User: What shape does this take?
Amino acid sequence: MSQNLTLGYIGLGLMGKPMARNLLKAGFKVVVHNRSRAAVEELVAQGAIEAHSPKEVAEQVDIVYTNLPDSPDVELVALGADGIIEGAHEGLIFIDHSTIKPETARQVAEALAAKGVRALDAPVSGGDIGAQQGTLTIMVGGDAAALETARPALEAMGRNITHIGGPGAGQVAKCCNQIMVVAQMAAMGELLIFARKAGVDPQKVVAAIQGGAAQCWALDNKPVKLFAGDRQPGFKAYMQAKDLTIVRETAEAYGMPLPAGQANAALFDQMLELGMRDLDNSAVVGVIEELAGTTLLED
Assistant: This one.
């Protein structure tokens, strides 16, 4: 793939904006669109080209990326009025970085295929830090040849890019990812408050265990912010809860029980009930604080 190809990016939120910026930094021509115009203006100032609809983006580009909140948003942008499908042309590649239902990814891929568009569901993991640094993990479902065409651009945004299988397979992998992420966040919250409740310094506990069998991404990345009193996202709790709804609905469709997943998801439901929806997913420790009657940071 050549940097002479034109890319489009739709959805310039906490993740999408730095990902689009990394495409610009890699030397690609990038057309951008977002419902809120401030992010568009910011990227235009850095060399992007402004578009006013998904259709307008699709008409101008060889590959169009989306990064949107939920399944209905992807359906609307891809298949709705003034959507990508209305600006589609033979050979266009559609890559969705959103986290959505696997079934939605399959339906969108099928609809776009009728217009000669190859679709990849390519959800990501690594949070805002990974998006900013271009070190995301990208899980890809769909046509393997389309992935190879797009791989050089994806490498501007991610470090670990894996083809999982056919349409929807990337979203299945993301469900699996979220099962593990939530387990890590819940366990981390429990161990931190367990240590505090037992009268032991949780910072020293983390230093002791993160080099052993308990080592994980959550312990490597989240405690430093929590110990500084910073619970800002990151990845917002309400988005984590949304992803867990996708996990639970997909598991139900396949008759798969999720005993641990259901318990961990309930903690995130409580986060929302306690008014913590816009905090980082690691702030689930706040639910454990409420249950234990103990705060992580001493007064």
Notes: The two ends are 56 Å apart (CA to CA). Strands lie at 6-10, 29-33, 49-50, 63-66, 93-96, 118-121, 124-125, 136-142, 158-165.
